[in-house]
Amino acid sequence: MQLTVPYHLENYIGGNFIGPLSGKFIDNVNPATNEVYGQIPDSNERDVNIAVLAAKKAFPAWSRASSEKRFTILNKIAELINQHLEELALAETNDNGKPLWLSRKVDIPRASSNFRFFATGIMHFSTESHSMEDKAINYTLRQPIGIVGCISPWNLPLYLFTWKIAPALASGNCVIAKPSEVTPVTAFLLGKICKEAGLPDGVLNILHGTGPSCGEAIVKHPAIKAISFTGSTRAGAQIASIAAPQFKKLSLELGGKNPNIIFEDCHWEKMMKTTLQSSFSNQGEICLCGSRILIQSSVYEKFKEEFVRKAQQLVVGDPLEESSQQGAIVSKVHFDKIMGCIETAKREGGRILTGGNGITLDGRCSNGFFIEPTVIEGLGPDCKTNLEEIFGPVVTLQSFETEEEALHLANAGTYGLSATIWTQDVSRANRIAAKVESGIIWVNCWLLRDLRTPFGGMKNSGVGREGGWEALRFFTEAKNVCIEL
Ligand code: NAD
Fold first, then answer.
1. pLDDT at 383
2. Cα–ligand 1 centroid distance for 164 (angstroms)
3. pTM exceeds cut of 0.85
4. How many whole angstroms separate alpha carbon 280 and alpha carbon 283?
5. Are 235 and 278 in a shared domain?
């Protein structure tokens, strides 16, 4: 099988590739060149309705299929993703603007790992039993929920799409999934791969379209019993308001404004190298990026000088070039949003230490959306710049004297997704890790991921956890059976 990207993408419903019932399409733009290079279905509730019918038809057989059968098919999908690494990586880069080497090294291999991880996971999934001495025995059945909705964002397109779909399918559900309309192509190609891998028709249905039209139709549909969503806090709140009155199960992975806390006793070289990555990887478009850098005052000036110098050396360029460390911002809309945030920072009194501008490249990418790595200082914890997610290559520096002050700054604001702590004092690392209001804490590292660990945020960064057993539990309904002895 060759994975080719047609000009018009189609929905994948009931094992068939079909256009949207409305006949309407949306332009798909390559952000590195600003060229429209395809169109995607502008799906609505009518498309969702037929996808639900297909899923209903497939559910009885899939939910009863043995875990060995599900393992075999999902593992085959993982293998096929690996086999098509090059085509998928190129598609991801053309759609998202991220460097091709990054798609090749991280995004696509992780999509494959997601399928492999949950394929094997379902073979080991077990349930609890509670004995009431000589009175009774309870056991828990964990059954598939039925039809579930998975909605994902544009920053790690296939990586996050599969992070939801794989556990949903492994645990015996049928899925209606929607990738971001900004980066739809690898999700479309995944449909081809699933077909090739022998996933029964209707088990996975992939719909394309906007949030308000297609996404909301998925959330509203009464036959879709659970929603797993990753995206902005704004959309998460809207989804919760629709799903809650219908008592749907909800998993919400939302925005972040993550603190990166640097103490004077840290391992300096490792901290500096990793902090550059946690600030600017994927153009700063990772929900886990450390966008608020908090530095102990004794090393503030040293940090600032070296960090700014190294940020200036980062190569922003054509995502297809191996030398590009930073590629294009995902869209014109997002480019404008980030530039607006930089203007806000200036109005708030922030000093731009480096960056702050859009970049015009030569040649193929002369119309693309590129932004300089940007470092800002002089702003306190209560300003918009330090409270609101920017989701671009923009970080702020703040200094602190004591551990208490570091914690105060770290916990300022409404987000609570992740935090990074740099210190060689293990006791201090443990103390701070326990007190920082974030769901994910890294000590002396960043983005080191074990897929078995609970993943998700506190406060406005989300509800629920993904990963490992948490995901398999989310996608199953627990039923207790009590037998009197
Ligand atoms: P977004 O909320 O605009 O869109 C995410 C997805 O939801 C898209 O598929 C979109 O079409 C859909 N959508 C939008 N409005 C909807 C609605 N009302 N009903 C149903 N679906 C709707 O987010 P984005 O701009 O694509 O992604 C960036 C955001 O995602 C950032 O805030 C980032 O922090 C967050 N994010 C969080 C995590 C995490 O794990 N917590 C991971 C990656 C990204």
1. 98
2. 13
3. yes
4. 5
5. no
β-sheet bridge partners, residue 251: 228
Query: Catalytic residue at 287?
Result: yes
Do 176 and 323 share a structural domain? Answer: no
The DSSP annotation for 217-259 comes to HHHH-TTEEEEEEES-HHHHHHHHHHHGGGT-EEEEE-----E
What is the separation, in whole angstroms, between the first and last Cα of the chain?
Answer: 57
Q: Inter-axis angle of helices 300-313 and 268-280, to 10 degrees? A: 50
Q: Are 406 and 250 in contact (CB under 8 A)?
A: no
Determine the Cα–Cα distance for residues 57 and 319; give it in Å rounded to an integer: 42
Atom 17, ligand 1: which residue's CA is nearest? 211
Q: Is 124 exposed, middle or buried (0-12, 13-18, 19+ CB in 10 A)?
A: exposed
Do 228 and 357 lie in one domain? The reply is no
174 is annotated as an active-site residue: no
Residue 171 shares a structural domain with residue 267 = no
Nearest atom within ligand 1 for CA of residue 219: 20
Same domain, 169 and 293: no
Q: How far apart are the CA of 253 and the centre of ligand 1, in A? A: 9
Is 3 within a domain?
A: no
* Assigned domain for 2 exists: no
3-class DSSP assignment, residue 393: coil
pLDDT the model gives residue 141 = 97
Q: Measured between alpha carbons, how far is 159 from 181 in angstroms, rounded to an integer?
A: 15
Atom 26, ligand 1: which residue's CA is nearest? 153
Of 287, 289, 341, 365, the active-site residue reads 287
Around ligand 1, the residues with Cβ closer than 6 Å are 151-155, 160, 178, 180-181, 210-212, 215-216, 219, 230-232, 235, 238-239, 253-256, 287, 389, 391, 417, 457, 462
**Same domain? 269 vs 239:** no
Structural domains of the chain, count: 2
Find the 153 Cα to ligand 1 centroid distance in Å: 4
Low-confidence ranges of the chain (pLDDT < 70): none
CATH number, residue 62: 3.40.605.10
Token pair listed for 160: 């996050």
Tell how far the Cα of 266 is from the centroid of ligand 1, in angstroms. 35
pLDDT value of position 1: 85
pLDDT in tens, 251-265: 999 999 999 999 999
CATH number for the domain harbouring residue 390? 3.40.309.10
User: Which residues is 137 bridged to in the sheet?
Assistant: 131, 483
Look at phi and psi of residue 461 and say left if phi exceeds 0, alpha if psi is from -120 to 50, else beta. alpha
Given 216, 253, 372, 389, the catalytic residue:
253
Based on the fold, state whether residues 278 and 420 are members of the same structural domain: yes
Looking at the fold, whether 113 and 16 belong to one and the same domain comes out as yes
Pairing type for strands 351-354 and 374-377 reads: antiparallel
- Segments forming the whole domain that contains residue 391: 259-451
